[in-house]
Amino acid sequence: MLDIRKFKLEEISDTTVTFKLEEKNIYARVLILEENIFRILITKGLNTITPKTWSFAKNSEISFEGIDKLDISQWTCPNFTVNDDEEGIISIYTENLLAEIKLDGFHITWFEKRNNKWLKVAQDLHTQAYNFDYWSDRGAYHALAKEPKAMFFGLGEKSGALNRDKRRFIMRSTDPMGYDAETSDPLYKHIPFFISHNPISKTNFGIFYDNLSDSVFNFGKEIDNYHGPYIHYDAKAGDLDYYFISGEKISDITETFSQITGKTALPPYWSLYYSGSTMTYTDLPDAQEQMNNFINDCKKYDIQCGSFQLSSGYTSIGNKRYVFNWNYTKFPDVEKFTKKYQDNGIKLCANIKPCLLQDHPKRSEIEAFNGYINNKEYNKPELVQYWDELGYYLDFTNPQTINWWQSNVTEQLLKKGISSTWNDNNEYEVYNGLAVCNGFGEEIEIKHVKPVQGLLMTKASYEAQINFAPNERPYLITRSGCAGLQRYAQTWTGDNNTDWKTLPFNLEMAKGLSLSGIYNFGHDIGGFSGPAPTPEMLLRWIQHGIFYPRFTIHSWNEDKTVNTPWMYPSVFDNIQKAFSLRNEVLPYIYQLCYEAHSQAKPIIKPTFYDFENDANTFKDNQEFLLGRMLIANILEQGQTKRQIYLPKGSSWYDYYTGEIYQGGQTICLDVDETSIPIFVRENTVIPVNIARAGFNKFDIDISYKIFPPLKTITSTHSIYMDDGKTNNYLKGKFGFVNITLDNSKSDLNIKWDYQGDDEFKVTNINIINMQEI
């Protein structure tokens, strides 16, 4: 064995088992946080390099300053047992999880309790699993043995197939405009969390590395004869600090991770309507007129539009962009402009950026309180490349920067009629890792906290919106950030490329985000960068995009055209039908947003999420689950037939006709330009909106589509209701329509009742039994 280092058991406390490597003054701590979550913290000395974490909000919101890394008060910290019966091996276990630690090298083998027996789920690489300050070319390093058939999921939005096996990924937030959805890496977000699934042993585990420095993940792309098959994580800086999460199912691990990093914010209902956007309008000299023409076109084509994401051209001076600066030549009457949008039922979400160009009119305001990320060597703000210029990143670990930002959000946006902030270009591409941040009075190098800056920028905007309108439910968008961004904002997969292959690979990104605890998202429909989409491509992209919480058509086309629903008359009728379907299923999407908020359940899921026992669901496919609906969009050019695998373990209804299909089979459908195949699991209730949508028309008239159980069963389905716009739900102002399906006798018996606040009480409901269509 190589690089064996002998640890000794140092201390056992109520929550922690501490080991020490005397030669290097290395401490390895095992913190028993939950029955199924152990934390491994390896430090030189007893102090951590980064004193705070912003990743966890298990029970409540956390402050801007974060939480002390050694503060474990938010965890349950259950009873545990320590055994040292076997020489050189220490066993630490709860009711559910066992860590067997070899003192030589601190190699850990992990076991999960199944049927009262310990089943091995993972083990460290038997040769060199950690860097105990012996390797100069590696940072915080961790290697595990790779099982032959193991699958790996997670890391947030990553390109390529959902299974990360045999790939290598860089975790470094970047602005990769026009990225290749199959191959580009790195992308925007920093979520160093993955799930491993072993299809042979039927075991799963998840690991989250609470380290925000640039890092690399290898899932078997790298091989080495001396060590055997392995996977590894290598961070450039910081401590090795990881959370091992066990779970019988993949869904257990995903939902646990989402819960501990913070509740998904419940969005206002209006944020789920179609949102228009383009770079083009605000880049033009007559931007206000162009924006008004968009309203006119929505009216002309009778398109329901709930919001418009206002690109940064509104801030321009010349051809550059200056955050919080209104270009009054382009927008001669801002208040009149925003009021026109409000009067037509369209909320404005304004793009803001966390970097001030070096000739920004407000530059000196921030310099006065040293509010930029600073170059310590020269005692000046750190100069970085930003768009077509150089500029200075704001430091959101400085309380005065937060105050300055919130004041400008309020004065320059909210008071002028802007409803929401679009927090963009917040990847913080600072290449000098030694540049320093205020750190709330404890100076810290930027290499340790780059992703936190984007998170705190979004939190600052979030709180500004709440302070301005305390009872209005906030809605924000952010492009970058780290685990926990779901507490404040919706996100999207960035500036995708207009290409047919982007559709299926963006879908894989969506599944990866969901498995990583980020649920409220979407894609730029039609493609953001590159040529204009063809009519067929735009149609298929819209037919796919209608099922995401973020339903935004956004573009910056090379030929200066703008992606809109009406850009191609030849497909407009079918696009209108897709919009109508979106309006129909929107109450169900809102229901899923509530379940994401209250139960940490993803909105969009791979089919194996609910059908893990069906090995076929792990094969590459272009289907996904929207709650209990299986969506099988047409994502390939010229497609006339669609093969769809219906998972085993349920029968499936055709959403439109009620025709029933047995699970566990592949069906083949003839498809045309109108086709949007949807299947629904038996024993499902889908709330649908039967009111017609149109321009400035947002009526809601809910009926309940029943897809009855085919087995003998009694089940109750609770459909959430609130006003969709205020924070009154936090004060108990909500209710549930409870629908009970009793199939225990020969005929289906349907009963319902209402439970909750009288404001939403219903006395009659319309039920559509899909067995009787």
UniProtKB/TrEMBL annotation:
Domain Glycoside hydrolase family 31 TIM barrel per the UniProt entry, residue ranges: 264-592
Residues in Glycosyl hydrolase family 31 C-terminal domain copies: 601-686
Record domain Glycoside hydrolase family 31 N-terminal: where: 29-217
Gene Ontology MF terms: carbohydrate binding; hydrolase activity, hydrolyzing O-glycosyl compounds
Cleaved signal peptide residues: none
Keywords: Glycosidase, Hydrolase
GO BP, sorted A to Z: carbohydrate metabolic process
Entry similarity comment: Belongs to the glycosyl hydrolase 31 family.
PANTHER family: ALPHA-GLUCOSIDASE (PTHR22762), PUTATIVE (AFU_ORTHOLOGUE AFUA_1G06560)-RELATED (PTHR22762:SF165)
Name assigned to this protein: Glycosyl hydrolases 31 family protein
Lineage, broadest ranks: Bacteria, Pseudomonadati, Pseudomonadota, Gammaproteobacteria, Thiotrichales
